[in-house]
Amino acid sequence: MSSDADDRTGTQAAIMEATYRALCDHGYADLTIQAIADEFAKSKSLLYYHYDTKDEILVEFLSYMLDQFTVEDAIDTTDSPDDQLWSLIDNFLPASPDPEQHEFQVALLELRSQALSNEAYREQFTRADRLIKDTLADVLTAGIDDGTFRDVDVEPTVSLLASTIDGAMLRRATITGNSTAATREALAQFIEIQLLAEE
Amino acid sequence: MSSDADDRTGTQAAIMEATYRALCDHGYADLTIQAIADEFAKSKSLLYYHYDTKDEILVEFLSYMLDQFTVEDAIDTTDSPDDQLWSLIDNFLPASPDPEQHEFQVALLELRSQALSNEAYREQFTRADRLIKDTLADVLTAGIDDGTFRDVDVEPTVSLLASTIDGAMLRRATITGNSTAATREALAQFIEIQLLAEE
Predict the structure, then answer these.
(1) Is A97 on the interface with B (CB under 8 A)?
(2) Which of B122, B165, B183 sits opposite A159 (nearest CB)?
(3) Taking the CB of the first residue and of the last residue of chain B, which one, N or C, has fewer CB atoms within 10 A?
(4) Do the chains contact at A113 and B117, CB–CB below 8 Å?
(5) In which band, very low, low, confident or very high, does the pLDDT at A5 lie, cut at 50, 70 and 90?
């Protein structure tokens, strides 16, 4: 990679990092390009030169996060398939998110609500859903192949898991007094009864 | 009820009906009090007199809908508990919503995203979640009592059903090409394997 490209990559990473911090601090509604620029140490003019609206930056932020995602970061592929499945559930639906995780999940849901009417956001969340479903499907298929899981239908099982995780996140963020404990308990029963092969 | 109270009730119902139509037509972001007034046949001054912001009307709209909800409208309590459970799933997560149902579900999700940061919306969605969970719990409990369902833990089962329904709705509305067919198929398997008692 040329040093020009290195600079570009370094600058983009720094902008995306600033976007993450600004989003956690302000949420979607109160976010401005200025708030992102305030978090960005170098060349603010670069930021204003490249982006006209906060939505442009945020859509690129979603795309950048998806580009960075690797299965190897999300799960330890030397673990057993049922441990890998729980790693994914813990990752997407933590039992007790720390304050930063919580702020970020709320911000992501605010961005997701833009996908209700904005095609550029919708594209990124469609890509995210595909990535999550593919990862879950890989873990399930590996578990079926090595005898950890029963020979279940992968597509509906993955859809149930993805819907349950998304819904539990939405409920925790929009409903007072709601935790994900009961949903996680029901997921544990589902895995025990419907997924895990008999000993 | 006095005829004054009748008038008030009639006017409120007419305002709420106008709000429903304006919300389906414009969605949350583009909704204005004027758009609601345009759908409201009588006394527009009354509308402007009572409400300062669209959020005031919309929070009252959610509250009004919840006041109108009766279990008897949602399910036929003479049906068997498993038919009642499917009536609820069909109601909240229709396989193929008609265009008006779809517009309204998208609008409801837009209102729900306001609950991420607005306490008045959050109160109404907390009430809605409690109502849905209580209704599901009543159906499950009746089914356990009459032997239709196994003696499952009601609270986690209800949380799984509510999360799955909410997540499938969110995914259908924010992800291109997503239907609820696979999630509904997995719910059918869940009910068959984990809920229904052995013959």
Answers:
(1) no
(2) B183
(3) C
(4) no
(5) low
Distance from C-alpha of B138 to C-alpha of B41, rounded to nearest angstrom: 40
Mean pLDDT across B96-110 = 93
Average pLDDT along chain A: 92
For residue B197, give both structure tokens.
Answer: 């008692």
Higher pLDDT, B170 or A74: B170
Closest Cβ–Cβ partner in B109, B155, B176 for A126: B176
Q: Provide, rounded to the nearest whole percent, the portion of chain A with pLDDT above 90.
A: 77
Distance from CA of A155 to the nearest CA of B (A): 7
Domain span(s) for CATH 1.10.10.60 in chain B: 3-59
Q: In the predicted model, is pLDDT for residue A1 greater than 60?
A: no
The residues that bridge with B149 in the sheet, in sequence order, are B196
CATH topology for B3-59 is Arc Repressor Mutant, subunit A (1.10.10)
**Which of B112, B164, B179 to mutate against chain A (most A CBs within 10 Å)?**
B164
Is the domain A69-195 a CATH 1.10.357.10 member?
yes
The contacts found for B106-111 with CB under 8 angstroms, 24 or more apart, are B106/A116, B106/A117, B106/B27, B106/B173, B107/B23, B107/B24, B107/B27, B107/B28, B109/A113, B109/A116, B109/B169, B109/B170, B109/B173, B109/B174, B110/A113, B110/A116, B110/A117, B110/B27, B110/B28, B110/B29, B111/B28, B111/B58, B111/B62
Residue A156 and residue B194: Cβ atoms within 8 Å? no
Closest-CA distance of chain B to residue A5, Å: 33
- Name every chain B residue with its beta carbon within 8 A of the beta carbon of A169: 167
- CB of A186 less than 8 A from some CB of B: yes
Q: What CATH number belongs to A3-52?
A: 1.10.10
Q: In chain B, which segments carry CATH 1.10.357.10?
A: 69-195
At A127-148, the pLDDT tens digits run: 999 999 999 999 999 999 999 9
Is the interface score ipTM higher than 0.90? yes
Whether the per-residue pLDDT at B63 is higher than 60: the answer is yes
Are B187 and B164 a contacting pair, CB within 8 Å? yes
Residues of chain A with CATH 1.10.10: 3-52
Which pLDDT tens digit goes with each residue over A81-97? 999 999 999 999 999 99
